[in-house]
Design brief:
With 104 residues, the chain is α+β, with helices and mostly antiparallel strands. The chain folds into two domains: 1-23 and 74-104; 32-71, no CATH class. It contains three helices and five strands; from the N terminus they run βααβββαβ. The chain has helices at residues 20-30, 34-51, 89-94, and strands at 7-13, 53-57, 60-64, 79-84, 99-103. The chain has a three-stranded antiparallel beta sheet with strand order 4-1-5, with no helix packed on it. Strand 2 (53-57) and strand 3 (60-64) form a beta hairpin. The longest helix is centred in the middle third of the chain and has 18 residues, at 34-51. It is elongated and about 60 Å long. The protein starts with 6 loop residues before the first strand and ends with a strand.
């Protein structure tokens, strides 16, 4: 896989990593997409304004927090498009055996 800085590439998951660190790295890379970032920002705003309800318990403020929403799923066949930067090249190289890369 040829990686060059400042290129936009589309990655497709071909096999799943057997270790949790690889899954976590793929999830982190998938969350870098602009549309996913937009969804996460909208969810954060909703959590701030609506979903996390403060209640009074024993004279103290208690916040009933919603469980975090998983916006991306690490599954075979899932694709994501990223602009490759020098900061994320090592992450991509660590999971490249699970990915199929194409220029976008």
């Amino acid at each position: 896989m040829e990686l060059a800085a400042s290129t936009t590439m589309t990655f497709t998951i071909t096999t799943l990593p057997k270790n949790e660190a690889g899954v976590k790295t793929l999830r982190r890379l998938m969350r870098m997409q602009p549309e996913v970032q937009k969804a996460l920002t909208a969810l954060a705003k909703r959590r701030r304004q609506i979903d996390n309800r403060p209640t009074n318990r024993a004279g103290r403020i208690w916040i009933d927090r919603k469980r975090p929403t998983q916006v991306v799923k690490v599954e075979i066949g899932e694709s994501f498009t990223l602009r490759v930067t020098p900061q994320i090249m090592n992450d991509i190289k660590s999971v490249e055996k699970y990915l199929d890369a194409k220029a976008a």
